Amino acid sequence: MVRQPKPRMKALGNGLYLVESTSKPGIGHKVDAARGKCGCPAGRWGKRCHHLVWAEQMDTWYRAHGAMAAPAAVPTRPVPFRESAGYKALAECFG
Hints:
With 95 residues, the chain is of the alpha+beta class. It has a domain at 9-64. Helices cover 31% and strands 18% of the residues. Strands 1-2-3-4 form a four-stranded antiparallel beta sheet. A hairpin with a 7-residue loop joins strand 2 (16-20) and strand 3 (28-32). The protein is elongated, with a radius of gyration of 20 Å. The N and C termini lie far apart (66 Å).
């Protein structure tokens, strides 16, 4: 049995992952680890593909370690420069 390297994965949140194809690098398959579904050809036929297995392993790791499988939150508004930590540090040094 030849071991395939794990592909690149990206957590999309709520048990959803984007897993890179091993046969077509650069192509990603959307995987729903919570529902056991994958968008690859094998997954569309109801087969348990390696993309799904890897996403389930990642999801299990995130839950076991208390990490959130979600993208980082984006601030709702940009912080004005004079309120930023960098500006405050410069003002303290040169103030």
